[in-house]
Design a protein that fits this description.
mainly alpha
Length: 103
């Protein structure tokens, strides 16, 4: 605040109008840089908030998915679990063989 008052007082007593004009232009340039920096920081803040929200929702979704799978697994019998394991094992072996044939 004091700097602004000093600048105003100095500008009022300047005899050369070109010097006053250059000082005003310099002050306007500094203000523009500050505004641009503030706008950039605000955009970054909004982007980080959106990223945080997206990650939070992804974590929540994955947690709910895991809970549903665990609940389904609790309802399966031992024979059902063995069947699921065998099916997954066969699918992995098939994918591995397909990958080896593609090379």
């Amino acid at each position: 605040m004091r700097l602004c008052v000093v600048v105003v007082v100095v500008l009022a007593f300047m005899a050369d109008s070109n010097v006053a004009k250059r000082v005003r232009e310099a002050l306007d340039g500094a203000r523009d840089e500050t505004l641009n920096r503030m706008q950039t920081l605000e955009q970054e803040r909004k982007a980080l908030c959106a990223e945080r929200k997206r990650i939070t929702l992804e974590i929540k979704s994955d947690t709910q998915k895991r809970q549903r799978l665990l609940q389904k697994a609790r309802n399966l019998s031992t024979d059902d679990l063995i069947q699921v394991a065998m099916t997954r094992s066969a699918a992995k072996a098939k994918a591995k063989a397909k990958g080896a044939n593609a090379r």
